[in-house]
Design brief:
mainly alpha
C-alpha cells in the first residue's frame, strides 16, 4: 500500500512593508466653545453700549440730548421685542418663570411711571399756554400760580424717581443656564432693564431739578455749594433758562426783556413737545416688551 504524502506549504509570519496610510484627521466640535451670537443679540448689545456712552457723557444736558436718549431707549426695546419672538428665547424664559414674573413687575412699573409722567407733562403744556398770556399782560399773580404748579409737578416727579430707583438689576446665576448662549441672552435682558432705569432717572431728575431751583433768597443759602452744583448739572438747559428769577417782577421789566422771556417760553414749549413725543414712543415700546414677556408664560 502506497502512502499518500501531501506537501504542506508554510509561509513565514512576516509583516509586509507596505506604505502606511496617512492618519485620518477628525474635526470634533467642542461644546465648551461659545457659539456665535444671534445677530439680534449682537445688535442690542451694540445699542446698549451706545446708550451707556450717552449717559456717561452728558456734556450738554439739553432737551435734544434727552430726546436722543429716549430714542435710543425705544430702539433697544424694539430690538428686545424681536429677540423675545425667537424660539430659543421662548424656550429659555418658559423655564425661568420666577425671573420672568420679576421682569413683568419691572416693566409694569416703567409703564405706570411713564404714564403718570405723560399726564403731568400734558398739564404742564396747558399751564405754559396760560403763562405765556400772563407774560404778555405782565400779570404777576398768574405767573405765581404757574410757578407753584411747576413746583407741584416737581414733587410728583420726585415720587416717580423713588419708584424707578426701586427697580434693581436681578441676575440669575450662571449655573441656572444650560448654555453660554442662554447666559448671554439673560445678561442682555438684564442690561436692558438697567439702561431703562438710567435714562428714566436722567429724564425725571432733569425736569424735577430744573423746576425746583429757587430764585436768589436767604432760603437758597441753606443749600450747600455742592448741592447747588448737582442741581445745575442734572438740570435741562432749556428748563433752567426759564427759572423763577426770569419770571418775577414782570411789571418792572421793559418790553424788550419781556419779549426775550416770551421767546424762551416758546423754545421751552417746543422742547416739552419733543420730550413728550419721545416719552410716548418709549412708553409704547415698554408695553410691547411686556406683552412679549407675558406671552412666553402663556404660550
Amino acid at each position: 500500500m502506497v502512502g499518500v504524502f501531501r506537501r504542506s506549504l508554510s509561509f513565514p509570519n512576516k509583516t509586509l512593508n507596505r506604505p502606511s496610510k496617512p492618519p485620518i484627521s477628525h474635526h470634533i466640535r467642542s461644546i465648551s466653545l461659545p457659539c456665535r451670537s444671534h445677530p439680534l443679540i449682537s445688535q442690542v448689545k451694540d445699542e446698549i453700549t451706545e446708550l451707556k456712552t450717552w449717559s456717561c457723557n452728558p456734556d450738554n444736558r439739553t432737551s435734544a440730548w434727552l430726546c436722543d436718549g429716549l430714542s435710543h431707549l425705544k430702539d433697544i426695546h424694539d430690538s428686545l421685542h424681536d429677540i423675545l419672538q425667537l424660539p430659543q428665547t421662548r424656550e429659555l424664559l418658559s423655564n425661568k418663570r420666577e425671573w420672568v414674573e420679576k421682569l413683568l413687575e419691572d416693566f409694569l412699573r416703567f409703564i405706570d411711571v411713564y404714564g403718570i409722567f405723560q399726564t403731568s407733562f400734558l398739564a404742564l403744556k396747558e399751564e405754559q399756554l396760560a403763562a405765556r398770556v400772563a407774560l404778555r399782560r405782565k400779570d404777576d399773580s398768574k405767573i405765581s400760580m404757574y410757578l407753584k404748579g411747576r413746583k407741584k409737578m416737581a414733587k410728583e416727579i420726585a415720587k416717580l424717581i423713588s419708584s424707578i430707583r426701586c427697580i434693581e438689576r436681578y441676575s440669575l446665576p450662571a449655573s441656572a443656564f444650560v448654555s453660554i448662549a442662554d447666559t448671554e441672552l439673560a445678561g442682555v435682558i438684564s442690561d436692558v432693564v438697567e439702561v431703562t432705569v438710567s435714562v428714566s432717572l436722567a429724564l425725571f431728575n432733569g425736569v424735577s431739578m430744573s423746576f425746583t431751583t429757587r430764585k436768589s433768597s436767604w432760603m437758597g443759602l441753606t443749600l450747600s455749594k455742592k448741592a447747588k452744583k448737582v442741581k445745575i448739572e442734572e438740570s435741562i438747559k432749556e428748563f433752567l433758562q426759564m427759572g423763577e428769577a426770569n419770571m418775577w417782577g414782570l411789571r418792572k421789566k421793559g418790553d424788550e426783556e419781556v419779549r426775550m422771556v416770551l421767546k424762551r417760553m416758546q423754545d421751552l414749549e417746543r422742547c416739552i413737545a419733543d420730550i413728550e413725543n419721545g416719552c410716548e414712543k418709549a412708553f409704547r415700546s415698554f408695553i410691547n416688551t411686556r406683552v412679549s414677556l407675558l406671552n412666553t408664560l402663556t404660550k
